[in-house]
Amino acid sequence: MNRDEILKQYQDLIDSPYGIDGITTGWLPLVSDLLAELKPVLGDSKIISIKEKFGELRVYLDTPNEEACKIIDRYTEKSSKTCEYCGAEASVKNLDCWLVCLCDPCLKFQKESRCDMFMDETDPDITMIEIPQIYDGGLFYYNTRTKRWKPRILDLCVTHISTIHEFLKSQ
After folding, report:
1. Are 118 and 150 in contact (CB under 8 A)?
2. Which of 84, 96, 120, 156 is the 20 to 30 A CA-CA neighbour of 150?
3. How, if at all, do strands 148-151 and 91-95 pair?
4. Cα separations (Å) of 112 from 63, 109, 118?
């Protein structure tokens, strides 16, 4: 079941503007099974957040009940053994100071694809600048040689580029 099918089938359970957007493909079957088990026990309660945190699936309810919490705990445990990206057997690992649940091939791919995400702060061509309007403590690196910006925070959206330009013009 894909993300849209899950949301359509269980839209009455989820009361969040983000739905299940933060869930990667490997965990979609877990989320689908979780929602199927939760549906009969939630009653009037709603799911206010479903996300990944510290390499595990997290589900938050507006009014939790004991039975629902037991189901959520079981799926949290399953998620810590399931690759977020491909669904294979995995374990929680440290990836550049982020806890993620990945199988070895997906971890290798993530490490290789992130190698350009961080810049060496000791490089004389690197200037660090803080732009709090974008993200609390939003730190960026600017390489004066390559004229490229890199966010220090991995999940920073590219949509904030115009804010960076506006900030720089005001300086």
Report:
1. yes
2. 84
3. unpaired
4. 42, 5, 12
- pTM, 2 dp: 0.66
The tokens describing 21, both together, are 């957007």
Do residues 101 and 92 touch, judged by C-beta distance below 8 A? Answer: yes
pLDDT, tens only, 68-90: 999 999 999 999 999 998 899 99
Q: What does DSSP assign to residue 89?
A: B
> Which amino acid, residue 62?
D
| Long-range pairs, 53-60, Cβ under 8 A, ≥24 | 54/92, 54/99, 55/80, 55/84, 55/92, 55/93, 55/99, 55/100, 55/101, 56/80, 56/92, 56/101, 57/23, 57/27, 57/30, 57/31, 59/34
- pLDDT, one tens digit per residue, over 22-38 is 788 899 999 999 999 99
Structure tokens at 103: 């199988």
SS3 48: strand
Query: Which amino acid is residue 26, in one-letter code?
Result: G
